[in-house]
Amino acid sequence: MTGFEVYKMYLALKQHFTKEKYDFYKYNGKVRANEKSFEERRDRYFFKKLATKYSGAKLLGYFVANFVNNPKGYLRSFSDDIYTDWKIHQESFTYKFKQDVNTLLDQSTFPYQEAFDRIFKLEPGKHPSVLRLYLSQDISLETLVVFEHCLGFVSDFDRVLTDPIWKETRLKILKYKPFLSIDCTEYKTTILDTIRTKL
């Protein structure tokens, strides 16, 4: 992979994470980019260095990890440490998901089956507890993505929530979803098992 090809992947992912209508997979990562103007960029060496360091799925993972951390795509904030932390988080996510479900249930009282439904409860002028716990970094973005993929809550929230915080979070959830491999049967079982252990 050349520095210019890495740059094109960066541009495509930047479009994906910042623009509602652009989909990295739908457009197969295609963007308009000019090699001559790339060679005139001051940051071209960043992309050339990445081309020697990562390729294929690893490069995609590097960019996804950094865009999830900083959706605006400021290169100064991109780092290998963010990518390494993201990989570790992905590898232990099943365990982390169970912890997140526990955290959510701890906010409620018995009966826990109903408590789980209450974490998505919408009230005017108030964020639901699932969103509040994400915003306070008590649960992960991946957990929200799993909930959206397997249970579908974003469209319900859209009917009530109109604030910029929700809109930004919503975009993150929807844009991150295609990059995660989610087995709904496994995660639904984890939710039910976690509820049972609290009974």
Provide a descriptive summary of the structure in words.
- The chain is an all-alpha fold and 199 residues long.
- It has 2 domains: 3-88, Helicase, Ruva Protein, domain 3 (Orthogonal Bundle); 92-198, Annexin V, domain 1 (Orthogonal Bundle), CATH 1.10.220.50.
- Helices cover 65% and strands 0% of the residues.
- The longest helix is centred in the first third of the chain and has 16 residues, at 3-18.
- The model has no long low-confidence stretch (mean pLDDT 93).
Layout of SSEs?
Elements: H1 3-18, H2 35-39, H3 44-53, H4 56-69, H5 80-91, H6 93-106, H7 112-118, H8 129-135, H9 141-150, H10 154-160, H11 164-176, H12 184-198
Beta strands, count: 0
CATH superfamily of the largest domain: Bacteriophage T4, Gp59, helicase assembly protein, C-terminal domain
Shape: elongated
| Element-by-element helix/strand order | HHHHHHHHHHHH
Keywords: ATP-binding, Helicase, Hydrolase, Nucleotide-binding
Protein name: DNA helicase loader
Pfam families: T4_Gp59_C, T4_Gp59_N
GO molecular function: helicase activity
Quick structural gist:
GO terms for molecular function: helicase activity. With 199 residues, this protein is mainly alpha-helical.
Key features of this structure:
199 residues, mainly alpha, Annexin V, domain 1, 12 helices
